[in-house]
Task: structure prediction
Amino acid sequence: MALALETPLRELPGIGETRSRALERLGLRTVGDLLHHYPRDYEDRTVRSTFRSAPEGEAVCVAAMVAEPPRLSRIRKGLELIKVKVVDAAGAATLTFFNQSYVKDALHTGETYVFYGKVEGPALRRNMTNPIFEREDRPRFTGRIVPVYALTAGISNNLLAGLVLRCLEDCASLIPECLPSGLRRTHGLAEQEFSIRNVHFPENGEALALARRRLMFEELFTFSCGLALLRERRGQEKGPVFASKGGDGFSVLLPFSPTAAQRRAMAEAAADMASGRPMNRLVQGDVGSGKTIVAAYGAWQAAQNGWQAALMAPTEILAEQHFRTLSGLFAPAGIRVVLLTAAAKAAEKRSVKAALAAGEADLVIGTHALLSSGVVFSRLGLVITDEQHRFGVEQRAALAGKAADGLKPHILVMSATPIPRTLALILYGDLDVSVIDELPPGRTPVETFVVGEDKRARMYSFVRKLVEEGRQVYFVCPMVEDGEEAAADLKAVTAYAADLQNRVFSDLRVGLVHGRMKPREKEAAMAAFAAGEMDVLVATTVVEVGVDVPNAALMVVENAERFGLSQLHQLRGRVGRGKHQSYCVLMTSTHSAESRERLRELEDCDFFIMAHKGVCAGREIGPLIDANQELVRRRAGEIRDLITEPMDFSQICRAVCTRFSLLTRRPRRALYYERNIRLFVEYLMDQGELGMETRQGTAFYLPSKKI
Result:
């Protein structure tokens, strides 16, 4: 059958209703969807070896003959084992398959197959576990770089790769070219058909790099055009005009002097709110940097101009904390602050809603309850959301949609996630970004330590010492109950809390909170900890966004290697919010040098500052930047000096990898090196130190002075 981009996948041979529904779970309904479902990784099946010469721990292809019929064993209920003896030109090996009963009938004695997998064991007893195989005389994926896709239950990688291969043959040329030829020439971009074919089944590493570069450019270019349209549309919208009342009136309400970064963010917000266009601004700052003060300044400006403001927080306890802080701050100015949460009594909810509708409340602080249909504002001019990553665009828009007068309200969102400004612009769409890149004076940095299991007893002693001094402690675990993961050493919060209470800290008050508890139970546990009724709180990452507990002086993260750096940074921010020296202990039993090094980075550096400056805290920024630039220039010069005659990119890669001992058989590592080398080549071209000429469709590079 002839295929088109609009052809439903269910019409393809071998795709019944069950597989069709499984593909739909991946968002794949048509041939066009399938061709734009790009691989997440690749397997290099061009590397051939024998069992005896195969490198330890690296996947290779081995052609071997089945010497004996496969033997099926049922170890226990739910576990089947098949062993097959195979031989190649250099020796024999044993193949082991778990729960793959089809193998017994798929492998025939005397036939030769190509097996792909890792060869392990000593030279005379080599073995492979769960290898992928196909007949040597009917190769489909052997001898090529094979894509690895994101999958779902009922869909194997072989099935998906086979479908893509079939659809590429018929439809790759039908995908329309969306980039103008002039734009492609300017940026050296491959054509659409070439890119689609090679992102799925690349001819070689260079073809894959060209395909990925083109598709990434296309995605970012399209996204940028969308952002430009959004900004143009926003520029045509009208918002409330908040005539600037200056900062002096607000400053007298504060018990401290704002930092320079806070004043800069407030000035940027004030300019937006006075422009006549709706503000869309993200205030990004480290935990404890004072983002709430910027939000308070916006609410003050709204009240001074006769408009209402709404602040939405992700949890009731955080909303209550904001209410206590801001109602006390605004009381001298006569600004009326109300609280609306799902936990409030019915009479309280009716009173708050009536005050908002009548314009008798200037600022409402609440949770998702603010989104309910019964909440009506008299004159909503400013919408503030705290912990931006906990809310979706739709939720933010739903609250903004409660404005009247045909004007779009100003939007201010706050986030402590340490991401670069440029990435923030991508993640948060058309938001302008204000960065608070300094902490209030006098705040003591949190000391961070990466600790192995051998130091657990000392860590427990340190916990007891802090509690005896009157401090409180968090313990964070990666999962709720045993059995969620295969790894036996993972700490489950429920069992761990019981163990701490019964065995380690029997004389202390140990509490528990996790995401499977009822909302009321979670709020009660966190409120009790905040009130000092617990010494130790054992939790999952639900405390990542929580109430301030100035008395908490220690955060212990169990199995820290299981968390992302941004998440660890957020967790660390739960302590160090008071006057006491605070600590963060990252417990890990991992033997991975890479994982430990990643945790060491958090031990030594302030990740929020790193995200924006690219440097470690406590060191001079300028010299580090200069040193990094000098390193780039020196390395680029060394690469340039290797190009003594016209060379294409693949030749440059081989020369660089040979010079710096980067040769590898690992496809992902090779692609990583190729990508970095390409960046250096582009840098040299931008600097005018390399020129390029095309010969028979191939680009050759040479130092400019020699061209």
